[in-house]
Amino acid sequence: MALDERRFDELTVESQDLQSEAMSTAREVVPDMRDLANDRRHDGVDPDQQAQFGLGRRRLLRNFGLAGLTAGVFGPLISSIVAGPAAAQAGGSIDVQILQTASSLERLAVNTYGVALALPFIKSGNQVIVKFAQTTMMQHDQHRQAFQAQTTALGGKVQDTPNAKNSQVVAQALPTLKAPADVVKLAMTLEQVARDTYLSDMSMFTDKKSRTLMATVMGVETQHLATLRAVAALLAGNGAALIAIPVDPAKLPAAAGSAGFPEAIPTPSKASPPAEGAVQ
Amino acid sequence: MSTEPLDRASLSRRRFMAGGATAALAVGVAACSSSKKSSSSAGGAVSTDTTAPSTTAAANGDAKIAMTAASLEVLAVGTYKSALDAATAGKLGTVPPAVATFVQTAMTQHQKALDQWNSVLTSAGGEAVTQPPPSLKATVDQQFAQVTDATGAAKLALTLERIAADTYLLVGPSITDKKAITLAGALQCVDQEHAAILNFVLGMYPVPDVFQNTDQAFKG
Fold first, then answer.
1. Taking the mean position of all CA atoms in its chain, how far away is CA A120?
2. Which residues pair with A2 in a beta bridge?
């Protein structure tokens, strides 16, 4: 492990300053959106979209036989991710549904990074990975707050329940997490789902300001994904010692220069549909 | 504006090229044809007005954005090519393998992005963009002349990637064609990915912003 703690902390502070500015910008957007709320809140959605989302916590636990694990090691972890019944609210505009699904993905990401940080081999492992997980969790939480604020501004009900479908993915993966590479792989999955969902959503928004906000978040999730891909490549190539900030670029393997961006033009293959995380 | 859900299976590159993007841009390309010679420097005169534009105006806007995007991709491809040539000629000293791979891969990906935009433009009856924005190219050329090593090349590459990613973020809300929106978003993503890896290689935190901003967007 190698970490320039002082430089890393400086970078984190810079990032947080930028986050404050960005949140300020996001807050400026919200009042304008309230003007749109009355026009948009009664817009209907495709019934097929509504039907796509139906998995609740109980079904999740039942399907994967996880109900009996509550006394085990992963019981509390799983509960922390999938806890809470879905709120009940029917309908909502496509914009609200998109924002609610995005909120559900961000909530799941925050919870999952929190769980990962508690795993012994992460906590006592490479401190750059720990810092990355901490910072990324914070960034996802800011994204969650921004999406929730916009949901409210559009007259929708805030979604704060983890995305049910992808909670299944996490719940399935948790018992298999034995090493940092396993956690990185799971995080890559969540980041790609978020990135792909937002990319797919771009053309579905009816409100430009909502689209802009989501694009600012998408640009960050895709950087999380690229970083995790590079880290995964280093771990796979016995290059854990190179996961350092600052890194000596001369020591990086050639693959590290391209592992982060395998697609010239990413396609949203893992996107969640707008209604998947909508408040029912 | 339509709220019909996008068919996710239709987002492949091939279907994008054959799909509605070209048709939707056709009117705009035709309208812009009188200024084709200077299209590459048309810049990103992008309105952020939320008022729905007329069909023709919207197509004009999309066509201008496509041309601006293509011109930025021309600049990226050309600059990476210059970096490769300089490295091959030994003008950048020892180039770390990861940096060499990065430059080669990023150049290839920017070429694919350029091909994509030009395919949209030519399919809609316009001409392919082959020139970078002149003002921006002049600035980049100035900076490239001062590059003496791989680190300097990586820093310049980071600047270019940020300009591209921030520009896609800036113009995104002004695009009206759905498939063009997705293409711009996809390229915003890949340029942000390039930037993240360059940040890491240059010793910086790879994801410095909580929200991407448009600070370095090209505005023509």
1. 22
2. A244
Each residue of A224-237: pLDDT tens digit? 999 999 999 999 99
Alpha-carbon dihedral angle through residues A211, A213, A219, A222, given to the nearest 10 degrees: -80
Which residues have CB under 8 Å from B21's CB, separation 6+?
Answer: B120, B177, B178, B179, B180, B183
Q: If you search the block for the tokens 């952020």, which residue do you land on? A: B48
Strand pairing report for A2-3 and A244-245:
parallel
Q: What is the separation of C-alpha B109 from the centre of its chain, rounded to a whole number of angstroms?
A: 10
ipTM of the complex as predicted: 0.80
Dihedral angle of Cα B174, B178, B179, B183, to the nearest 10 degrees: 40
Which residues, in sequence order, are bridge partners of residue A245?
A3
End-to-end CA distance of chain B: 28
Q: Average pLDDT of each block of 10 consecutive residues along chain B (220 residues)?
A: 31 34 51 42 31 55 95 98 97 97 98 97 94 97 98 98 98 94 98 98 98 95
CA dist., res. A111 & res. A160, Å (int) = 11
CB B213 within 8 A of CB A215: no
Asked if A254 and B101 come within 8 Å (Cβ–Cβ), the reply is yes
Record the pTM.
Answer: 0.78
**B187 contacts A265? CB cut-off 8 A:** yes
- Please answer yes or no on whether A261 and B205 come within 8 Å at the CB atom: no
CB pairs below 8 Å between A and B: how many? Answer: 233
Q: Identify which of B151, B103, B190, B102 has the alpha carbon closest to the alpha carbon of residue A246.
A: B151
For residue B106 the two structure tokens come to 């990023």
Of B206, B102, B210, the C-alpha closest to A128 is B206
Residue of A137, A223, A225, A245 best to disrupt the B interface, most CBs of B under 10 A: A223
